[in-house]
Amino acid sequence: YNSILDDKSSKNVGNSNRDNEDGNRDTENNKDKNIRAKDIDIGNINTTTSIKNVDNRDGEEDFAVLVDDVSLEMKGLNDFPGPYVKYFLGIGLEKIQKIAFFYGTECTAICSLGLVYKCGGDVCVITSEGRTEGNIIVSDDLGTNEFGFDGIFQPKGYQKSYGEMTVEEKNEISHRAVAVMHMVEKIKDLGIFMK
Q1: What backbone torsions phi and psi does residue 25 show, to the nearest 5 degrees?
Q2: pLDDT winner (highest mean) among 7-21, 129-143, 177-191
C-alpha cells in the first residue's frame, strides 16, 4: 500500500516486526518513500477493536492514518483471547500450547485495519479484515521468526508455523497480508490516494 498513499500518510507502528511483516522494509529494492512510521499518542485504548479508535486526528488538515489490531480466536475457548491476545501472550507460548492441548488447537488469526483520512471537510474511514485459519501447534521448535504467536500458529494447509516461515512466505498468506490486500482493493475501487 505504500505506492497508493500519498506523502501526507503515516502509520502507527508499535514495533519493527509489524513493519517488516506488511512489506515496508527499508531495503535497497524497497525504499518506503510514501509511508513513514510515526508514534502517535492516542491515549489508552480499552475497546475490543482498534476500528473504534481510528478517527482521533480530526483536527489536522490533511492526513491519512492506518492502524491495525490483531486477534487470535481459539475455538476451544469460545474465541478467547480474541483482541486480548497481546495480554494472553504474557503467560508464555508454552502455557498457551498446554491450554490448546486440553481445549483444542483450532484457531483463527485475524487482522483488522482501519484507514482514516480527510475527505473534503469530513473524516472518512475505510476498514478491512484478513483471517487465516490454523492450529496451535504443540512443539518444542518455535521457529526463528518469533513475533507474537508466530512460533505456535500453523496455518491450515501448511507444514510450517508462521515462526518457521521466511518473512516472504508469511507475507503471502498471513492474516495481515490478507487485510492489506483487501484495503488496497478498497482504496483502488474508491480512487483515493492515486498518483
Answers
A1: -90, 140
A2: 177-191
> If you write DSSP's letter for every residue of 34-87 in order, what string do you get?
S-EE---------SS-GGGGTTTTTTSSS-EEEEEEEEEEEGGGTTEEETTHHH
- HSE (side-chain half, CA atoms, 13 Å) at 170: 26
What domains can be seen in the chain, in order of their start residue?
9-190 (3.90.950.10)
Tell the residue number behind the cell numbers 474465541, with chain if given.
79
What pTM was computed for the model?
0.73
pLDDT of residue 193: 73
pLDDT average, residue stretch 127-148: 84
Asked if the bond preceding 81 is cis, omega within 30° of 0, the reply is yes
